[in-house]
Amino acid sequence: MLGELVAGAAEGLVLVEDTVDCEGRSLLQSFVAAAACRGECVHVFGFEVSEEEFRGCLDPRAAPQVQYHDSFHDPLGWSGVGLEALGAQESWFQGLRGTPGGAVTVVVDSLSWILLRQPSPAVCQALAGARVQRMLVLLHADLHPPGLLGVLRSLARVVVALASTSQGLGVGRGSLHLASVFQRMRAGKVVTKKEYYTLQPGFPPMSVEEPRGPMSPPRDDDTMAHPGTWLTFDPRAQLTFNPGVSVEQRQVRDAMPLPFHFSPCKKLSVLDQGGQIYYEPDPGDDLDDEDPDDDLDV
Amino acid sequence: MFVELNELLHASPERPEQGTFTLLRDTRTDGSFLVHHFLSFYLKAGCKVCFVALIQSFSHYNVVAQKLGVSLPAAKERGQLVFLEGLKSCFEVLFKEEPPTGQPNPLQFIREGGSNLKALYEFVRTSLTPSESDSWKCPVLLVDDVSVLLSLGMRPVDVLDFIHYCRATVCSQLKGNVVVLVHSREDSDDTENELVVNALCHQSNLILWAEGLATGYCKDIHGQLKIIPRGPAVLSTERDLPRTYQYKIQDRNVTFFARGMSAAVL
């Protein structure tokens, strides 16, 4: 499903939500690369990264299709360049109101940057009133309150929420990511799907089946090749002994008496009825046959 | 600089990376040893360093730098180090008259309520813009630390704007590096600080996260360090995967080892 969205099935507002653990700019770049390869005109409003960094993974042959509006170097006019510097944020709003040059795809990197500096109602109104065929926005979900996230998701036609598959493995490129896709169709039907995918720079995402680990523990190189296999790791598979107990073994074990449990037969075997004590007194002993307790008045 | 940390980061003072934004983050421990590492690393690499020191005095950093083989007064004298001593500048802003002409104090935002950090950014830009006589390698901005700016009354957006402009100027235009220390706490009520921390994590190319041990104090293990690469598209290699090591801080060095492999327990 994710591959189809990247290939052009996504329309309207497409929200790519990422977190600190799993970045989403690479998926956004794959959307842009696919749109540019289809010959569509793409307008990118970049607030967080420079143009060189954003275009880094794009195919040079498709680069002319991508027009980058630089709002990264001087968005607040601190360099005092004048009207050019002051229009960084305003140009984004204008870009949504009227399609600049008949743009098919508008990309915002990132919407979080704008939401932190502009009133959220104005931003939501601009998103709702946009007249572009496809609008891709990157949103850092861990920077905004849940209420605002809910509002933005209700405005979006497609929501792709990214998550890492294990501790930190979702950060590096080419590692396994989990995408929760929510798509609202034209007829009103809603489709949701969770899928694992890997992503190489400049290429569309490749869906991967949900990782299922084998019964044996993976070796270190297997773990790197299949990062999800350790999720169902069975530690008992390669032990040199059997920690389990069969039913017959359990019965025999239960029937065994405990070492210090004094059953009547064990008491009899321990307590000896007969026997005498033989004592040879030492030369210094003072033996007295009288009972030493005779003088007690008891 | 700590040699073992250079090996873990695949960094060398002979070939310092350029255009990177490194975030130093600490939780339940003090991550300032990372600041001392990068200060000595970039000075030994021959880079021009602008150090915005808001926490400690110059003498404190100098004492530690001398243990690592670097003299901060000598670096200042030859023009390699531009040091903004925040503790002294705060005093001048609050208790001294403003100079009639010349550059405004970089920390004038302390006196002016509701202002931004543009003056501090101008100080950084002026310090690191190379002159014709400069022969240093790439410029480097070091900030210790960002969380104190929030404590001084700045809004999170103002702090993020300052870092944004520093990245745009130092990393993108001047092809230099920015290293910033920020404190964070798990389950913290300080939503503004957590917002700044998360936003900086999204912007960084490399995150070094020093954490105290969850089990508490240990004499032989002072904490654990997570190395989390982020940033522009690169082919995935082992270097791109997050790694965690434990460390022990000694007098002149920091030793790193795999978790559970401390010499004290082996």
Biggest sheet record of chain A:
9 strands, mixed
Number of strands of chain B: 9
What's the structural domain tally of chain A?
A: 1
Rg calculated over all Cα atoms of chain B = 18 Å
Count of folded domains of chain B: 1
**CATH top level of chain B?**
Alpha Beta
Average of the residue pLDDT scores of chain B: 86
- Summed up, the helix count of chain A is 11
Q: How would you state the average pLDDT of chain A, rounded?
A: 76
Helix content of chain B: 25-40%
Q: How do the helices and strands line up, and which of them pair or pack?
A:
The complex is a heterodimer of chains A (298) and B (266).
Chain A: H1 2-9, E1 12-18, H2 25-37, E2 42-46, H3 51-55, E3 66-70, H4 83-86, H5 88-97, E4 105-109, H6 111-115, H7 120-128, E5 134-140, H8 146-155, E6 158-164, E7 177-184, E8 190-198, E9 206-208, H9 220-225, H10 247-255, H11 264-270
Parallel strand pairs in A: 1-5, 1-6, 2-3, 2-4, 4-5
Antiparallel strand pairs in A: 6-7, 7-8, 8-9
Helix pairs in contact in A: 1-2, 7-8
Chain B: H1 3-9, E1 21-27, H2 32-44, E2 47-53, H3 58-67, H4 72-77, E3 81-85, H5 86-95, H6 118-128, E4 137-144, H7 147-151, H8 156-173, E5 177-183, H9 191-203, E6 206-211, E7 223-229, E8 243-249, E9 254-257
Parallel strand pairs in B: 1-5, 1-6, 2-3, 2-4, 4-5
Antiparallel strand pairs in B: 6-7, 7-8, 8-9
Helix pairs in contact in B: 6-8, 8-9
Describe the structure.
The complex is a heterodimer of chains A (298) and B (266). Chain A has helices spanning 2-9, 25-37, 51-55, 83-86, 88-97, 111-115, 120-128, 146-155, 220-225, 247-255, 264-270; strands spanning 12-18, 42-46, 66-70, 105-109, 134-140, 158-164, 177-184, 190-198, 206-208. Chain A is α/β, with parallel strands linked by helices and 298 residues long. In chain A, helix 1 packs across helix 2. The longest helix of chain A has 13 residues, at 25-37. Chain A starts with a helix and ends in a 28-residue tail after the last helix. Chain B is of the alpha/beta class. Helices cover 35% and strands 22% of the residues of chain B. Chain B contains nine helices and nine strands. A nine-stranded mixed beta sheet of chain B has the order 3-2-4-5-1-6-7-8-9, sandwiched between helices. In chain B, helix 6 (118-128) packs parallel to helix 8 and helix 8 runs parallel beside helix 9. Chain B is globular and about 60 Å long. Classes of the chains: A alpha/beta (298), B alpha/beta (266). At the A-B interface, loops of A face helix 8, helix 9 and strand 7 of B.
